[in-house]
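Weekly sync notes, structure subgroup
Attendees: PM, AL, DS (notes)

Item 1: joint prediction request from the bench team. They want all two components modeled as one assembly rather than separately. Inputs as received:
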Amino acid sequence: MSSWHSTAALWAAVVLSGLYHGANPGMGWPLAVSAALMERRRDALPKAIAALGAGHFLAMLAILLPFSMMTALLIWERPIRLAAGALVIALGSFLLAYRRHPRFLTRVPPHRLAFWSFLVAMAHGAALMLVPIYLGLCAAGAGAGHAAMAELMRANSIQAVLVAALHTFAMVTAGGLAALCVYSWFGLKALSAGWFNLDLAWALSLIVVGGLAIGLAA
Amino acid sequence: MTVRPDPTFYASPALAIQAPPETLAYTLMLSPDASKPDGLAVVDLNPASPSYGKIVHSLFMPYRGDEFHHFGWNACSSALSPMNGHPFRERRYLIIPGIRSSRIYVVDVKGGPTAAKIHKIVEPEEVFAKTGYSRPHTIHCGPDGIYVSTLGGGGKDGAASPPGIFIMDCDTFDIVGRYEIDRGDQDKQYDFWWNLPRDYMVSSEWALPPQFENGIVPADLLSNKYGHKLHFWDLRGRRNVQTIDLGANHQMALEVRPAHDPVKEYGFCGVVVDTTNLEGSIWTWWRDKDGKFRARKTATIPPESADPALLPDLLKGFGAVPPLVTDIDLSLDDKYLYVSCWGTGELRQYDVSDPMAPKLAGSVHIGGIARRTDHPGGRPFRGGPQMIEISRNGRHVYWTNSLYSTWDDQFYPDGVPAAMVKADVGANGELTLDKDFYVEFPEGYRSHQIRLEGGDCSTDSFCYPSAR
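Output from the run, pasted for the record:
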């Protein structure tokens, strides 16, 4: 696979994972439906989605930025990518074995949507899922030459913000669309009818992403 | 864990009203003298069935002397809370506490009416050790756990420290611990309920165990020592944010019934007796725009004078029967509030479309201390209307007749054999007793709370409004 192709595939993965996270009711779009219905104002829906997006974006940054610092250590590039892959697999396996949801998530006051979204993305490894993809992008970009360390760090932090922003944009789009459909056309019945238990799929996708990261880095 | 949400979880009250009608009721049976174990009766409510109105299965407990009272589900519509993100539990287990023994039974009702079986028993020692509370009572399924109110605190008589609420794990049924971080002025406990999206809880007060376990204490009642306060809580902050004293003469503030539609920020509470005039009363509480809670008496029910020869010793001196408002229940459309007058033997139906001005819309008489009205089918009905449950569609109202073992004996010395009856609600709200519905219970038992298959008007809490 050429470098151009793999870069495009990695960016596509950033978008697809965003759509996946956004469409998953567990990441919060039902809160936007609830907000619009409770406040009896349609514009409460985009406001709630924006707050959820903000929390999600911050969670992505909180995980990606530390890794962007580490990417400057070029000689450690492969071990870092292998370790990140292993970490994601470990979380996926943990979620597979331990199917309980953290109780504290339901104890966040309902008006603190961004905070809730941040905690959910952290607790479920939504941000961690992006790390292997992000590291792949950094590696693809670094092939060009031997940039100065400071320059590389700067470029990689910008890359982290871009990845988080694009991913969040996709997440907000999918979640917003789901919320809008239920609110405007399908009605609340669709909420329970269309809600599937994604625990298994979620844990497996973490394992697959981690496995791919290790496969590509090795 | 299931792949799809339980079909009996409803996002809004409107969806619950439209759901298929219930075909089973679960009714608690208690042995008032503890000579037999308490039990759970499964009653057939399917009019097309040959066993309609009959007990099709009874499950008796391995211990005696539990004194069953209230109970609830392990999971309900609150599982669809958008903050939960994981509505994949089944409505499958009934959590049944014994208020005398402090033992809690978890009964698995999956697999049809005759399959009910004990899944787990939480022994009283675990309740005492992990919570410092005793005498568990009301059960509500929250999105993060099962909330249990208790009537007793610490010490042998349950009065050494205040009672409160504790939380049980919704998967393992282990006790997690106390709910309260700051209880404020709350020192007694009875019922509680909440508004999940608005994030508040309301709790009420009956009395401490020495004031009820061996019967009502007339001296305490006449000196206004029973509960008369409502407590409002920051639900997730677990703090008492406001206490409203209804006035000391308003003795025993029992059932708390918030509007089911979470967009409405009001609810009701029933007060058993006003010690100045023996009235029963309905109170409306609400939250103002400034976030403060208020409460006002919005309906009163007068006592009825009676020949002292017909009255138990407790009431002879008054020559009157107090209505004794012991239970209230609100239909899922928030339109009708049903009120038990356990003393006078009347079930009242109030139109509460305007919650600040309940209008008496219907009434049926059955039982009563002095009236002693028989069931229209011809059979006797001792006691009075007590625990009420309303079908999700609002067309049927079921009730039983026992209040509490020792109090039954004081107000109805001739005994209160178990009964469960039904009234139908017509298209325009007209309330009529069904003369053909009269559930027969085993000899020597009394009947208490009723739960309906798939949820009812006093279990499910909804996270989304009915309409926009």
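Discussion: Chain A has nine helices and no strands.
Action: AL to compare against the crosslinking data before next sync.
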